[in-house]
Write a structure and sequence with these properties.
Layout lengths: L3 E7 L2 E7 L3 E6 L5 H15 L5 H5 L8 H4 L14 E7 L2 E8 L10 E9 L3 E5 L13 H5 L8 H11 L1 E3 L3 H5 L18 H13 L7 H6 L9 E8 L14 E7 L8 E3 L5 H14 L6 E4 L8 H17 L6 E6 L2 H4 L9 E8 L5 E6 L3 H8 L4 H6 L10
Parallel strand pairs: 3-13, 3-14, 8-12, 12-13
Antiparallel strand pairs: 1-2, 1-4, 4-5, 5-6, 6-7, 9-10, 10-11, 14-15
Helix pairs in contact: 1-5, 7-9, 9-10
Length: 401
Amino acid sequence: MIKTISIKSFKSVEYLEIELGRLNVFVGANGSGKSNILEGIGVLSAAADGKVNDQTLLQRGVRPGVPNLYKSAFPVPTGRAPSHIWFSGKAEEVHYDVSLNNPLDDPSPAWLYKHELWEDAKRKLASRGPNMNNPGNKEVGIAALKAVELAEDDPALDLLRRLQSYVIYTPTTPVLRGVAPETQPRHPLGLSGGALPDAVDELLNRVRKKKSPFKHIEDVLDGATPLIGWAKDFEVGNAAELYLSPAAQMTAKVVAFTDRFMAEGRNVLSGYDASEGALYVLFLAVLAAHPQAPSIMAIDNADHGLNPGLAKRLMAAFAKWILADKKSARQFLITSHNPAVLDGLPLQDDCIRLFTVDRDNFGKTYARRVVVDERKLKLAEQGWTLSRMWTNKLIGGMPDV
């Protein structure tokens, strides 16, 4: 598992070090730098994979940017902007560090590797610097090339592969419904939520073949407070066989929900007609359950379109799904603007972490972990929820407006 991520001189981040858990939720004002943190990790991911350019960044959901925008532009005593951007990822006794450069006045399509270091407590697996006699092709990362020499169960390789797998999902309702194309396709889900029916179908087929359970269905449909209370079942069907206008058909498969209240024969709704909240529930359930989902991923604005009550219950269920997955130890970074999300977080478990993101008086992004201390417990005894503490500016991450 990745323990620590560090970012330096990237956009609004002058320097930031974050100790990650399994589920990491970031809240803060618009423009505080939450997305910059996610994208900084995306640049680190591309570097670990051996190439940093517009294509490799877009594949990870990172907005490509010119050096003038990527390199921090905070005033410094010398008057000189930083010459490079720097990132680091650490696991137990393993770390990968990289600095990248690209001239401000004559930028090239690919960022150049300035420093690169991949090592554990006993080995220096890959190393390069500007003073090396033969640094090789500076557009290509050394660590990604050296990775072929390591055994599959090597912890150092696990760190590099986790970094390489990182992507940022930004689900949108039209793509989830299947009425807008996915511009960033990926398996099992596109970065905008494309291929949701195919991913759900894969999971349901695994259940039918008894290869693995899809236990999340219990939280989605059953229990005292199901996440989709109006549905008694869902499946994946052919678009042509459902009550769906031909003008709305963009994919061959669609998710179909059976409404528990409507009359038989007229109670099947496609993803096009169902509530967007139901689609977001399935989207998160797939990412938590699918065996081929990335080992570390971000979801930007995960609360989009969700009623506060559903946002709270979904986050509580999502945390439960993640903690139950002991084998893959997937890690999630989520940004949110919905206060109710905070009330669904079991912060008493150290694997679940909440961070507030702000900008200081100089405009620099910083993140502070919110821990359950004696003061917050006393407030909770007086009826204060975590969401109320946030909106009343008691834990940070709330603008002065």
